[in-house]
């Protein structure tokens, strides 16, 4: 479990850095937002991993408490995951490198994740609502990954390709 969370932290941090490099020249504010919120999410998951690692070496009551804290960290971390999708969607809209609909789905998904964290705080048993709020984010995430892997990004209006910035 701890190894899984550490791999999530590593992939989240590297992805945040990669999206910063992708969007930094065309939309530096959104690029910084994606990076900052993505790294904040990675830190929350890192703390969760530390809780789980500590839980393995303690008494049963403490172990239960640490597992509950870890679970709640993931719920709270949804705020940062939502907040990283909103500037990502904004960057998609402002750069024109990807379909505008993708940008709007990412923004809606980001708002959904923020709402999930709030819903879980006030109504922890409202899992059906939380699951529905996650749908736009899931669609946007898979669409973004698929689009980048299959299509890539359009060339800039000035004729330069954002792919060239990734090499520098």
What report would you give on this structure?
The structure is a single chain. The protein has one domain (2-167). The chain is 83% helix and 0% strand. It has helices spanning 2-23, 28-55, 60-95, 100-122, 127-150, 162-167. Helix 1 (2-23) packs antiparallel against helix 2 (28-55). 38% of the residues are buried.
Helix content: over 70%
Number of E strands = 0
Major sheet details: none
Low-pLDDT runs of 5+ residues are none
Give the distance, in angstroms, between the N- and C-terminal Cα atoms. 36 Å
Question: What Rg, in angstroms, do the CA atoms define?
Answer: 18 Å
Rough shape?
globular
Tell me the number of helical segments per DSSP (H or I, 4 or more residues long): 6
Task: List SSEs in N-to-C order.
Answer: HHHHHH
Structural class: mainly alpha
Oligomer description: single chain
Mean pLDDT: 88
């Amino acid at each position: 479990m701890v190894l899984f969370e550490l791999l999530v932290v590593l992939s989240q941090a590297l992805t945040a850095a990669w999206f910063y490099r992708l969007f930094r020249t065309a939309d530096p504010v959104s690029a910084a937002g994606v990076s900052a919120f993505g790294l904040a999410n990675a830190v929350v998951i890192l703390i969760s991993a530390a809780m789980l690692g500590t839980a393995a070496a303690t008494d049963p009551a403490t172990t239960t408490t640490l597992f509950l804290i870890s679970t709640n960290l993931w719920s709270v971390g949804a705020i940062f995951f939502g907040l990283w999708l909103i500037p990502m969607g904004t960057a998609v809209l402002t750069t024109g490198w990807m379909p505008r609909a993708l940008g709007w789905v990412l923004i809606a998904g980001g708002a959904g994740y923020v709402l999930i964290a709030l819903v879980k705080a006030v109504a922890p048993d409202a899992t059906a609502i939380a699951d529905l709020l996650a749908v736009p984010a899931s669609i946007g995430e898979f669409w973004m990954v698929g689009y980048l892997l299959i299509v890539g990004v359009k060339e800039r209006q000035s004729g330069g390709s954002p792919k060239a910035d990734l090499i520098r």
